[in-house]
Amino acid sequence: MTNQMDKMKWSSIFAELVLLLVKSVYYIGESIYYMLVPLPEKSLADDIVLITGTGHGIGKCLAMQFADESAKVVCVDINAQSNAETAKEINAKWKGKAFAYTCDVSTLEKVRELGERVKSEVGTVTILVNNAGIMPCKPLEAHDEATIRKIFDINVFAHFWMLDTFLPGMKALNKGHLVFLSSMAGIIGLKNLVPYCASKFAVRGLAEAILDECRGDGFTNLNFTSIFPYMVDTGLCKKPIIRFPSLLPLVTPESTAREIISAVRKNLFEHSIPSPLLVINNIFRCYPYKMAMDFKDFMGGGVDAHDD
């Protein structure tokens, strides 16, 4: 009897292994196909999109471009004046599409209050874009405790508080899309950005883990997208080091927003801006560490230290 059960067990494992191999071949073929044929893009017309950090930069461009896709846009920023201006610009073009809320997203209680207001005044958020962030550029020894804690409060813990508040509504609908703004500094460590890099690596891990948790719990209609921009010309990076500016120039907030929205519409799991950077990193991770470091030194990207 025991031998028969063992045979059935191994037969089951073998069948699973064969299925895994068949799926792997299919997924590789699918990836090759979509390298040649553009992915279909979903409509955003019925979505309520909440974006943090909409007072300027990438967040403002995202808010305006999501509105252009006929989505309702919930603009959230700690700066009430600039955030209200963003919503005003959107509503001048698309009446009633934008709603402005002032909130310190680094504080759980304030985010929960925000969630209650948004749900009663706008509706259930179906796309959440965690964009707000800060980027002090200085050596690790020049950072004090308060600055490091602030980096993690805004760049990392705010993601947790937003998930705590808005993910349950998506689960109830079994529909939603979570967008995590990491950075290429969340893929590759850089001098003068040690706490910032650590915070963006954390965002990447958070995104992968919450995807796995939701997938394991059966929420298969929830989508997750991690974004890894190169240096974006938003004013955060005042002294960029770029050896080959014609090859890797500063990225504009407008083009960054366009690529993020395209990634959302295609349900991409991860996307770098420019797109080849993530592929290049993945390739070099397969080679000796010293080789990867020499290539990084040759490209010469980074930031010089400067005051905020």
Summarize the structure.
By secondary structure, the chain is α/β, with parallel strands linked by helices.
Walk me through this protein's architecture.
With 308 residues, the chain is of the alpha/beta class. It is built from 9 helices and 9 strands. The strands form 2 sheets. Strands 3-2-1-4-5-6-8 form a 7-stranded parallel beta sheet, sandwiched between helices. A two-stranded antiparallel ribbon has the order 7-9. The longest helix has 35 residues. 35% of the residues are buried.
List the topology elements.
Elements (H helix, E strand, L loop, with lengths): L1 H35 L11 E5 L4 H12 L3 E6 L2 H14 L4 E5 L5 H14 L5 E4 L14 H29 L2 E6 L12 H23 L5 E8 L10 E2 L11 H13 L4 E4 L2 H9 L4 H11 L2 E2 L5
Parallel strand pairs: 1-2, 1-4, 2-3, 4-5, 5-6, 6-8
Antiparallel strand pairs: 7-9
